[in-house]
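Checklist before submission:
- one chain only
- standard amino acids only
- sequence pasted in full

Submission:
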Amino acid sequence: MKVRIAAVQYLLRAIDDWDGFENQVRFVLKAAAEYKPNFVMLPEIFTSQLLSFMDTESGIKAAVRRMHDYTPRYMDLMAEMAKKYNFYLIAGTHPNLRDGLLYNSAFMFTPSGEVFSQDKIHRTKWERDKWDTSAGNKLHLFQTDFGAIGILICYDIEFPELARLVCEAGADILFVPSSTDDRQGFWRVRYCAHARAIENQVYVAMTSTVGNLPVEGLGMHYGQASIMTPSDFPFSRDGIAAEGVVNMEQVVIADVDLDALMQNRLNGTTIPLYDKRREFYSDPVEVTSARSKTT
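Returned file contents:
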């Protein structure tokens, strides 16, 4: 089965009100829809664009929590877009409050109107210290009409165990919405995402915020969308099905073949998803002293 993925490099620019945000979202999703994708993904915390017209001078921690007031509008808009254009929409991530705690959550909207979510499991220092977010504690595998997918939010892709868990559960595609402020941060996420594609013989789609905002911690962004494959003969030579131009607003499109993925997992040059020696990992490290002996 061929599956088409559209990853949006979303340009953060200052706006005056909710309408500015909604108009930009409608524009980029309409542009993506023209390519008839099965999945569309927006970046991590792209809704932080709303902070450009909110009061942040009294403290970023309080301001981020006030973003929750826009959650109903965000949910309605994304549900409308997924249904209108008949695609699964991984609608970036949005800070939201539950039981008084702030979570950085990815929301997935289906063409039939259902909504699912995946909280970010691992928080960066910025999220802990400046935003005071709470960590998610559950990893999901979503069975869709176009394969099984997992969502690992930015920093989460830097933990190989998470990707392995969701791939052993059956994931065909990992979606990685991200947001990074500099080149080093971007490449940490990108290199890890590509490694996860190779280690788990899985497709990995990643996208990032680009642009800038006049808001603490969001002044600069460095990003690029890409759709990565395992590294073997049935796939693109460099394991990159498609990638965007760094720091440009655009939509990156690629078709991936789930049947080729299944065949590669069984008959590939290497098959790391299945070759793992599970019995070895219960107690894999033996600590041995190799210090020089003194007389």
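Reviewer check: The longest helix spans residues 183-200.
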